[in-house]
Amino acid sequence: MAVYTKINKLELEKFLINYNIGSLISYEGIIEGIENTNYKIITEKGTYILTILEKRVNPKDLPFFINLQKHLSKNKFKCPIPIEDKHKNTINLLNDRHSIIISFLEGHQIESPEPIHCYEVGKMLSNMQKITQNLDLFRKNNLSIKKWKQIFSKCIEINNHEFLHLINPIKEELIYLEKNWPKSLPSGIIHCDIFRDNVFFQNNQFSGLIDFYFSCSDFYAYNLAITTNAWCFNADRKFIRKNFELLLNGYETFSSLILEEKKYYNILLRGAAMRILITRLHDQLFHPDGALVVPKDPIEYFEILKWHQENIVIDSW
User: Is residue 1 part of a domain?
Assistant: First the structure.
């Protein structure tokens, strides 16, 4: 979450006339996150989140995100519920940008995950797989290796920044990943963005998953790899094996990795690190003026990538 598009009270009040959620009491921008503009809005009938879609979200993909969250919520999965307006629409325009209102989830983010939190995340992840395994929805992953290369090609056009030492290692790693990336593994709908700021807890229990705007159809093990990188390294970029073990234990509640997924898991971990490394590098180099968001440090995921280049987590299985 973040704030790129600024709105005033009058604009928001006019927008809310189309909904049956009561008159506006207050609103505030949510600074955390990097992709879309988000406001917490409080009305006479409750608290909601207004999301204004920015940057990498294709409006044609919005029905996929909406229908996925509706299906998950219908099956008692804890996630935001898209709010329909008076005409049964969930997607509307605000300041010429596609915008959505969703329900507000109680809970808080975990800054320093413990094994108990990783167990809850693994269980949640596999539960989502179970609920969606027969869901007739498909969206191609638009942040595949091909897209990483396109984003990176923009980055190498800039030659006066503090991250120049990353360029050659990224070039070499992209060649390696493209050559070794798996062709076929168990696949389905994945969240693809299970970072700490997208998962809420109450009393150390999972209470909600948000931000489905990277959700797509891809390898289940890739989803687990993204989650591993986000939850199993501490602030010093040290791998926390106990967190990883409990993440897997939770994941095995409804799912399990087959031999081929284990075989390619290190490749997937490196790819998951590369995806974030490149997008963070891009956001550092092309940060919009005036945006109320702090771009995240690409060095964090460069060091995670280097760890995976030197270590194989599958050795402990």
Answer: no
124-159: string of b/e by CB count within 10 Å (b at 16+)? bbbbbbebbeeeebebebebeeeebbebbeebeeee
Per-residue model confidence as pLDDT tens digits over 115-148: 999 999 999 999 999 999 999 999 999 999 999 9
- What residues have CB less than 8 Å from 101, skipping those under 6 apart? 19, 21, 41, 48, 49, 50, 51, 82, 83
Distance CA 68, CA 135 (A): 9
Q: Do you know the residue count of the chain?
A: 317
56 lies in the same domain as 30? yes
Residue located via tokens 């709105």:
7
Measuring CA to CA, which residue among 45, 270, 315 is closest to residue 178? Answer: 270
Rounded Cα distance, 190 and 179, in Å: 23
Domain CATH code at residue 39:
3.30.200.20
| CATH (domain of 132) | 3.90.1200.10
Distance in angstroms (rounded) separating the CA atoms of residues 125 and 53: 25
My answer on whether 123 and 231 are in the same domain is yes
E-only strand ranges, 82-215:
92-94, 97-103, 187-190, 199-202, 205-209
The residue out of 43, 78, 103 marking a domain boundary is 103
Residue 2 placed within a domain: no
Q: Please identify which residue in the block is written with the tokens 């191609």.
A: 140
Query: What global pTM score does this model have?
Result: 0.92
* CA proximity to 119, closest of 236, 222, 201, 190: 201
Q: Residue 236: give the domain boundaries.
A: 115-316
Q: What angle (nearest 5°) sits at the alpha carbon of residue 106, between those of residues 95 and 130?
A: 95
For residues 171 and 59, state if they share a domain.
Answer: no
* pLDDT given for residue 33 in this prediction: 57
d(C-alpha 135, C-alpha 275), whole Å: 27
